[in-house]
Prior knowledge:
Blueprint: E1 27-29, E2 35-37, H1 44-65, H2 69-92, H3 98-123, H4 130-152, E3 161-163, H5 167-183, H6 193-208, E4 213-215, H7 228-243, H8 245-282
Antiparallel strand pairs: 1-2, 3-4
Helix pairs in contact: 1-2, 1-3, 2-3, 2-5, 3-4, 3-5, 4-6, 5-6, 5-8, 7-8
Amino acid sequence: MSTFRRRKLRPSKALPSNVTPLRKSDWVADSSNQMRPRNRGIYLLPNAFTTANLFCGFFAIVQSMNQRFEIAAIAIFVALVMDGMDGRVARMTNTQSAFGEQYDSLTDMVSFGVAPALIAYEWVLKDLGKWGWLAAFIFCAGAALRLARFNTNIGVVDKRFFQGLPSPAAASLIAGFVWLAVDNKLPVQDLALPWVMFVLTIYAGITMVSNALFYSGKALDVRYRAPFGVMILVILGFVLISSDPPVALFGLFVAYALSGYVFWVWQKIFLRKKKASDMLSDN
């Protein structure tokens, strides 16, 4: 009987602390089916939209410091469009990357966390003294916590819903109110607008870190056919928004900001009725 000599395995050397081991996603097969490290370049198209989002957020901050609040609010809505485009483009072109995810989160913190808080403070919250900057900080901190929780819960929560109010929607709620008030030339002191903005800012900041579920819209795939009625709704939406953009957009985001709590109440009532009906059927 032939004997086999067992090969003595050497213990693997530990990597230096400044070296990160390659993950499975960092390797790609070449033309000869040999695995090689993935190219460290970045995808230009989706990251270009993310950069445009970042530019709009920074532009909004600059305009608010120059007391041009209407332009700053409009820049937030443009950033919202750019933020929606980069994710859609990345999924449709199959150009998702870890770099893009991190870049998008950092950009969202600027455009939908810092910029709206600064706009609200520079507009009317500074008239409230320390209460004003505390409200602005609560919104900014809520956006940071919301983004951090979103990044850690990817692949865990239901993709059809967001846990907590999304930071772009919260930013649009603040920017929409500023745009509405400035466009209609509402007197700040006569209508107690600082306190209205205070409540709105606190509500948006807390709702971002709540457990309320908000519809994400990710289940809607624009690459496939949709019923004809959906196109009619899209046309009506464009007509309503174009008729009076500040009123229409602010009303839209107010309804969305309340929808999570409405859905939560509906779930409680529905589950209670279902539980009662199950108990009756068991008896």
